[in-house]
Amino acid sequence: MTLPNGERADLGTKIEEYVLNPGHWEGRHKARVFESMLGITRSNQQVLREAILAAAENSEEVEALGDNGHGMVYVLRFPLTTANRTAMILTAWIIRHDEDFPRLITCYIV
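RESULT FIELD:
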């Protein structure tokens, strides 16, 4: 299964304000892991953004988790390689009831 309308995936500000933000009370842990495992920080966040958008558009390994009351939730895992290091990235998405495109909920290294 593919992510519905994955070519229109919206990352919002989730990457820079949460996932790669070392000052965020919850995201700081994700930020530390992304930096230590893949060398990705806010300063080179475009690497992660582009990889997530490409996976959202092209991956056929999407798992539908069902409706959480706000919309349909999906999980997409994909490998990301940077500087000879590879890690599996998990992304979670929602397509809200009143929308027809996926929004990033979270992402982290598994």
